[in-house]
Predict the structure of Alpha-galactosidase.
Amino acid sequence: MALSLLALTLALPAVLALDNGLARTPQMGWNTWNHFGCGISEDTILSAAKAMVANNLTALGYEYVIMDDCWHAAARDPDTGAPVADPSKFPNGIKALADEVHGLGLKFGIYSSAGTYTCGGRFGSLDHEEIDAQTYASWGVDYLKYDNCYNEGRAGTPKISYDRFNNMSRALNATGRPILYSMCNWGEDGPWNFAVDIANSWRISGDIHDDFDRFDDRCPCTDILDCKLPGFHCAMSRIIDFAAPVGQKAGPGKWNDLDMLEVGNGGMTFDEYVTHFSMWALVKSPLILGNDVTDMTNETLSIITNDALIAVNQDSNGSPASRIWKRTVAEGGDLQLWSGSLANNQFVFALMNTSPNSQTVNVSFADVFVDQGAAFAAGTFTLYDLWQKDDAGAWGKSLGDFSGSVPGVEVGTHQTKVWKAVPKSTNARRRDRRDL
Ligand SMILES: *[C@@H]1O[C@H](CO)[C@@H](O)[C@H](O)[C@H]1NC(C)=O
Ligand SMILES: *[C@@H]1O[C@H](CO)[C@@H](O)[C@H](O)[C@H]1NC(C)=O
Ligand SMILES: *[C@@H]1O[C@H](CO)[C@@H](O)[C@H](O)[C@H]1NC(C)=O
Ligand SMILES: *[C@@H]1O[C@H](CO)[C@@H](O)[C@H](O)[C@H]1NC(C)=O
Ligand SMILES: *[C@@H]1O[C@H](CO)[C@@H](O)[C@H](O)[C@H]1NC(C)=O
């Protein structure tokens, strides 16, 4: 009985996701937009690619070099309708640039919009999906970030948005070249429901702003599930709030994208950037750097090279952490406990403090392991602090064995602490579908 049930489970497709073989773990890389905006050229992109290699970011999994908006010439080719790059910014053309990026062992990404124009006012791909996808494939493109500006009102129901974004999904597939499809419709019409089998990832909110928690009316929604104007200037910790309910929809090949990272761009403190990187890793967002990787401080480099956090993000289970509780703090802000499971019966949990003061908390295992059941939570766990280095200099210092709780955790203002938990082999575990 148990065996046949197992056989049945394994006979189902491993994941119901876009069948292009890509993004089995969240994609990692670098994108021009957050730091350079429209001020890009061949040199911006090649310098970044070389810096990624020189700083060993490639060895950690940062793989895609993504050219965002404003690479375009003033108009498409008047004879063929094919997209054309700005000849002054890209004198050797995009194919030559992609070849150079490939020569460095990296992959190359491009940007367009499912609209008449891109957000920066260049020509968009709406109703030009096929020729654009074919041209990108002929240039050697491996990744498309596909935006939502100037969409002619072809949105408002999941079906209309699905059809518009599926047109590009099918055009990419028809090229025969595996191209990672990163949808960027800002959560409109609930892509976590409709896009799971047409895209590898979808943005869940308006654009991030390099700021911890400032409310900005240009990012007006307080809840993302029925948001009518995603906007932009969304502070980092607000995007974490938006991500809390939708983690359940993500998995291998289909990720919630919390937007490109701001780590290193200067708008947040060290602890705030640690929170940013930690939470993006825990909820399995793509980790796309958005800073100037040719000019980084040691602090920036230390955050983006924390390989213990990267391992959480790239864990083969592909299971986003869930928010277990969020408690309002009297002086403002809140404390949040997040918990998730990893491969090999390991776990990760995090305590995040958005309040203006340091807080001391007993983190209860009954909360951390609420999904695993009381008997399991009553066991003993070896804990590793993923933001401390061990004696050999590796991230993830062992703190020893704990049962019941982690008592007296002090978490500073805007700080996040992250632990990996490894149960002692004797812990009883409730079995449910996800254990198979
Ligand atoms: C990159 O890795 C190599 C080999 O492990 C090492 O020699 C070098 O110092 C590293 N460079 C940086 C910038 O970390
Ligand atoms: C999808 O493509 C078809 C064929 O080109 C087109 O008629 C249709 O309008 C497109 N759908 C949307 C919602 O853009
Ligand atoms: C196109 O889609 C088919 C069917 O889902 C899939 O088997 C194939 O790998 C896809 N090809 C590419 C290049 O994405
Ligand atoms: C950054 O780290 C490097 C190598 O560990 C060191 O040589 C350099 O002095 C550091 N720079 C600063 C500004 O701390
Ligand atoms: C944490 O637990 C200890 C020992 O059980 C208790 O004395 C303390 O008041 C608790 N602290 C908080 C903040 O709940």
Summary: The chain has two domains: 28-314, 322-423. The first strand starts at residue 28 and ends at 31.
